[in-house]
Design goal:
The protein is an alpha/beta fold and 621 residues long. 64% of the residues lie in helices and 9% in strands. The chain is built from 18 helices and ten strands. α1 crosses α2 and α3 packs antiparallel against α4. The termini are far apart. Bound molecules: adenosine-5'-diphosphate and magnesium ion. The site of magnesium ion (MG) has 4 residues, from α9.
C-alpha cells in the first residue's frame, strides 16, 4: 500500500466521524434555533429586556472581584502609611459594596420577567400542539399506541419549556461571568484559565452522556409510567367508581401499580447509580486542579511575585469560578435533556400530517350538496395498521340516494369500521368508495365532511351546555340545516331539555357547578340532535338506538325517515324493529356483505338474516 492511499484512508477515517459529528452539531443548533424562535415569537419585547438584565447581572461579579483587588491593594498601601488620602479608597469600598446590592435589586425584576415569559411560551406551545392535533385529519396516527407514548413525552416537553428559559439565562449569564473571571485569572498566569477549563471538559462530556441515557430510559419506562398513571386514575375517578367497588377491584389496581412501579424504579435506580459514580470521579479530578492552583498561588506569594490585591483577586476568581464551572457542567447536561425534549416536540409537530392521501387544492372536487347516485363500495379491503386480521374483506354494496340502508352484523363484524372509512378516518387498503361515481379521495376533505352527518357509536359527550352540544354539529353557519331546537325535537332531546334546571343552557357535566349528568339514552338523543342540525347529504347513525327505550326508538325511526327524505342514509342497529323498516338491509359477516335486500326479501331468502330475525322475534312471542 503506498503512502498516498494510506494518507487518503487516514483522512477518510478522520473525516467520516468528524462529518457525522458536524452534522449532529448542526442539527442540534437547528433545534435550538427553533426552540429560541418559539420563546421569542411568544414574547419578543420581554425577551429583549430579559437578556439585557441577564447581561448586567452577570457582569457585576467580575467587577466585584476586580474592585476587591483594588480595595485590598489600597488597604495595603494605607496600612503601610504611604497613602495621601483615604477618599479614593472609600470610594472604591462603596463601589465594591454596590456590587452586592445591585444584583439583589435587579433579581426580583428578572424573576418577574421570567415568569411572564414562561407563561407566554407554554401557552404558545400548547397552541402549536393543538394546531398539530387538528392538522391530523384522520385517525391513522391517533389510534396507534405509540402515538400515546409520544404524546406523553411531548406533554413533558411543554413542562420543560420554562426550564429552557431558565437554562438559556443560566448559560448566557454563566458564560459572561466565567469569561470575565478567566480573563482576570489570565493576568496571573496565562495557563491557569486553560488548566481549569480543560479539566472540566471530561465532566461536561460525561454529564451529557448520562443525560442521554436518562432520557432513553425514560422512553423505555414510558409504558410502565403510563400504566401506573392509569391505575392511579381509574381508582380515583368517578367513571369507573361503580365497577371498581362492586367487583372489589381496588386491590387489583394497587397490586398492578406496585408491580409497574417496581419495574420503573429498578430502571431509574440503575441509571442514578451510574450517574453518581461517574460524577464522583470527575469531581475528584476537578478538586485536584483547584488544589494545584492553590499551590501555585502559595509559591508565588512566598516569592513576592504577587501583590496582596492579586492574592485577593485570585481567591475571588477561584471561589466564583469553581461554583460556576460546576454549574456549567450541570447546565450542559440539562441543556442536552432540554434539547432532546425539544427534538421530540418538533418531530411530533413535523409529523402531524394527514396519513390519508389528500388531493391538491387545484385537483380537489367539492362534494355536492345533494347526491344523485348515492354511495358505492367496490371490493373494500381493510385492516388496522396495528391489526393482524383483516376487518373488511371484499365489501361491495350500494347505498342508494333517497333510501335508508340498514347495516346489521355481529359485534366486531366491522360495521363501525365501515363508518370510519365512509368518513375518511381511514382509507381502505384496496377497493374504492365512490360518491356519485367519484372516489372519496378525489373530494376536498373539508367539503366532503361538511356534507356528512354522523352519529358515531362512541360519540363524544362534550363538557358543554346542552345547546352547545347540539350546535357543535353545525359550528359554521353554512353547515346548518335545522335550527338547534328543531333538531332537538326530531331527536327527542327537547324532552331532555325540558327536564333540566336551566333547559338547553344546562351544562352537561358534573365537572362544573350547576351541571348535570345525563343517562346513556338521554345523551344519545343529544348526540342525535347534533347529527341532525347539520345540512348533510349523507347521514350515518351507528347504533343510535342502543340506549333508547322501545317507544323512543320507534318514534325516532318514524321521524328519521322523514328527516332524511331525499338523502343517503345508513343506520346500524341490532334491533330488528328498526332494521325491518329500512328500504334496504345489508348483512355484514366476517368482513363481507353476505346478504342484501329488503326485510321481506331477506326473510323469504331464509338465510342468515332470517335466522337472526327469528331469534329476536321469537323472544317476544
Ligand atoms: N382502532 C382500532 N385498531 C385496531 N383494531 C380495531 C380498531 N377498532 C376496531 N378494531 C377491530 O376491528 C374489528 C371490527 O370492529 P368494529 O368495526 O368496531 O365492529 P362492529 O362495529 O361491527 O361491532 C374488531 O375486531 C375490533 O377489535
Ligand atoms: Mg360498532
Amino acid at each position: 500500500m503506498n503512502l498516498f492511499t494510506r494518507a487518503g484512508e487516514a483522512v477518510r477515517d478522520l473525516w467520516q466521524p468528524a462529518a457525522g459529528a458536524a452534522r449532529g452539531i448542526l442539527s442540534n443548533l437547528r433545534t435550538w434555533r427553533r426552540g429560541l424562535a418559539l420563546v421569542t415569537t411568544a414574547a419578543p419585547g420581554i425577551v429583549f429586556l430579559y437578556i439585557a438584565l441577564v447581561i448586567v447581572i452577570s457582569i457585576v461579579p467580575v467587577l466585584q472581584v476586580w474592585l476587591l483587588r483594588l480595595v485590598v491593594d489600597g488597604l495595603a498601601v494605607a496600612v503601610g502609611g504611604a497613602a495621601n488620602s483615604v477618599t479614593p479608597l472609600l470610594a472604591l469600598a462603596v463601589l465594591y459594596a454596590l456590587t452586592y446590592v445591585i444584583p439583589a435589586g435587579l433579581e426580583p425584576i428578572q424573576r418577574t420577567l421570567n415568569a411572564w415569559l414562561e407563561d407566554r411560551a407554554v401557552a404558545e406551545m400548547d397552541r402549536r400542539l393543538m394546531d398539530a392535533g387538528i392538522r391530523l385529519t384522520d385517525l391513522v396516527r391517533i389510534e396507534r399506541p405509540p402515538f400515546q407514548d409520544q404524546l406523553r413525552l411531548v406533554q413533558d416537553a411543554i413542562f420543560f419549556l420554562p426550564r429552557l428559559i431558565a437554562y438559556l439565562q443560566m448559560g448566557l449569564g454563566t458564560a459572561l461571568t466565567l469569561g470575565g473571571m478567566l480573563l482576570l485569572l489570565a493576568r496571573l498566569h496565562p495557563l491557569l484559565p486553560l488548566l481549569l477549563a480543560v479539566l472540566s471538559l471530561p465532566h461536561l462530556f460525561s454529564e451529557k452522556r448520562l443525560q442521554e441515557i436518562r432520557y432513553q430510559s425514560m422512553i423505555d419506562r414510558s409504558r410502565a409510567a403510563r400504566e401506573m398513571r392509569y391505575c392511579a386514575r381509574i381508582t380515583t375517578e368517578p367513571a369507573a367508581a361503580k365497577e371498581i367497588r362492586v367487583f372489589g377491584l381496588g386491590d387489583f389496581f394497587l397490586r398492578r401499580f406496585r408491580s409497574r412501579f417496581a419495574t420503573a424504579y429498578e430502571e431509574m435506580r440503575r441509571v442514578r447509580l451510574k450517574y453518581l459514580r461517574a460524577s464522583a470521579a470527575f469531581t475528584a479530578l476537578h478538586a485536584l486542579a483547584l488544589a494545584g492552583g492553590f499551590w501555585y498561588v502559595a509559591v508565588q506569594a512566598r516569592a513576592g511575585q504577587l501583590t496582596l490585591g492579586d492574592i485577593a483577586l485570585y481567591f475571588g476568581v477561584v471561589i466564583q469560578t469553581q461554583g460556576r464551572l460546576q454549574g456549567l457542567v450541570f447546565w450542559s447536561g440539562f441543556q442536552y435533556e432540554i434539547l432532546l425534549h425539544l427534538r421530540g416536540l418538533f418531530s411530533f409537530l413535523d409529523q402531524a400530517k394527514p396519513a390519508i392521501a389528500l388531493p391538491t387544492p387545484r385537483q380537489a372536487r367539492q362534494a355536492p350538496a345533494e347526491l344523485h347516485q348515492g354511495i358505492e363500495l367496490q371490493g373494500i379491503h381493510f385492516r388496522y395498521p396495528e391489526g393482524t386480521l383483516p376487518v373488511l374483506e371484499d365489501v361491495s354494496a350500494r347505498l342508494p340516494c333517497g333510501a335508508v340502508t340498514a347495516l346489521v352484523g355481529a359485534n366486531g363484524a366491522g360495521k363501525s369500521t365501515l363508518v370510519k372509512l365512509l368518513t375518511r378516518m381511514y382509507d381502505p387498503d384496496s377497493g374504492e368508495i365512490n360518491l356519485d361515481g367519484v372516489p372519496l379521495a378525489q373530494y376536498d376533505l373539508k367539503s366532503l365532511r361538511r356534507r356528512t352527518a354522523v352519529l358515531y357509536q362512541d360519540f363524544t359527550r362534550f363538557s358543554l351546555t346542552l345547546r352547545e352540544n347540539i350546535e357543535l354539529g353545525a359550528i359554521a353557519p353554512e353547515e346548518g340545516g335545522l335550527d338547534m331546537e328543531e333538531a332537538a325535537r326530531w331527536s327527542g332531546a327537547d324532552e331532555v331539555a325540558a327536564g333540566l334546571p336551566q333547559g338547553f343552557d344546562t351544562p352537561l357535566t358534573r365537572r362544573f357547578q350547576g351541571g348535570v349528568e345525563l343517562s346513556g339514552g338521554e345523551w344519545q338523543k343529544v348526540a342525535l340532535a347534533r347529527a341532525f342540525v347539520r345540512d348533510a347529504a349523507l347521514v350515518i347513525l351507528d347504533e343510535p338506538t342502543a340506549a333508547l327505550d322501545a317507544e323512543a326508538e320507534y318514534r325516532l325511526f318514524e321521524r328519521f325517515r322523514q328527516l332524511v327524505a331525499g338523502k343517503t342514509a345508513m343506520i346500524i342497529s341490532h334491533r330488528f324493529s328498526t332494521v325491518r323498516m329500512a328500504d334496504q338491509i345489508l348483512v355484514l359477516e366476517e368482513g363481507r356483505i353476505i346478504e342484501a335486500g329488503s326485510h321481506d326479501e331477506l326473510v323469504s331468502l331464509a338465510g342468515r338474516y332470517a335466522e337472526l330475525f327469528e331469534m329476536q322475534a321469537g323472544r317476544y312471542r
